[in-house]
Amino acid sequence: MSFLRSSSDRRKSASKATRSTVRGGGKSKIVVNQRLQLNPDNNHQPESYEDLKSNHFGPWIFRELEKHLPSNMLNASRDKKVKYMSGILDEYLSPAERFRGQKQKEFRQKIISNYPPLHKELYTMHPTTFFVPEFLRAINDNTEDSFRRIMSEPAPGIFAFEMLQPRFCELLISEFDNFERWVHDQKVRVMRPNTMNHYGAVLDDFGFQTMLAKLMEDFICPLSKVFYAETGGANLDSHHGFIVEYGNNRDVDLGLHVDDSEVTLNVCLGTKFSGGDLFFRGMRCEKHVNTESRSEEIFDYSHFPGQAVLHHGRHRHGARATISGHRVNLLLWCRSSVYREIRKYQKGFCSWCGECKREKEERMHTLIDNTKLVSHYVIFILHAHALLSRKMT
Length: 393
Ligand SMILES: O=C(O)CCC(=O)C(=O)O
Ligand SMILES: [Fe+2]
Prior knowledge:
The protein is 42% helix and 21% strand. By secondary structure, the protein is of the alpha+beta class. A hairpin with a 2-residue loop joins strand 3 (152-155) and strand 4.
């Protein structure tokens, strides 16, 4: 999903949303539809859209867009505003995206209206029962110092901290098991979390969308604004939340990959297992995703239940084989449509990609070497010239 799509699409949609051409008497004139105001009303307090079940647009986009509504819409009912804004936002989607979105919505609605949850209390955010007190305190204090007090940064850009209460982890695994049993008994076909995990489930598909949106908005965004501001973390606006599962008759390991996310939260839920270490191999842009790692980029990490790891989605990583037991993790891929749009227009070296940095350094060295060579040559010529002119006099 991307909020603003390719440049030509965007231009087309934007002009559709703001003005239309009326032909009459051989002349054409522009009629302003007033669907949005160019300048936001910053004094207006937008509604909360946390619970919105939009497949494409996060609550953040609706909140920002609300400030651009025409004045007669600003105080309309929330439902009316949602309908109005969805109508405008949908113009930014391709027919294929709209179709996929509609299918996904129907699929989710079907599951949600039939699946009986086992632990209803998990489906709405209860910070004090979900999180350990130290994590909550750090988020409430909301400063880089308070975050760093509870986090370690064992390798650049990778943060580890205790996050979830043991009881919450237990209940989430039990809810996931219950869902798996239901899927099996009802012979429902479900989507797996991604192309690489063949087990596990998408939490957003069976009722967790609102809770996970809140998890991202209130508990991950404060961290990502500080630690990943330059790489999309400043404006995360959608998520993909899922469970992965390894062990006997399940996935064994996960090969080296990058996530479809700007920021990834990976929390180990349990249970008892050996092996399953995470391994990291440095950040790479799209162009350099398959290049070699440098020794300083190689980093392995042992995860334990309740422990969270936060990393950039383009930080290459994987999970080693789970040798024994059952390993279950909660993954939240957090995305920024604004950042993705900006990236499309960025050319040349990428400041965070290890290979771009290496290429840049190499070019700098070549440039310096060439400059040195030229200056040596110039000095040599000057000397020779001086010598010759001395001899001639
Ligand atoms: O198994 C893990 O902990 C890693 C999972 C992961 O990287 C992913 O699903 O994207
Ligand atoms: Fe991953």
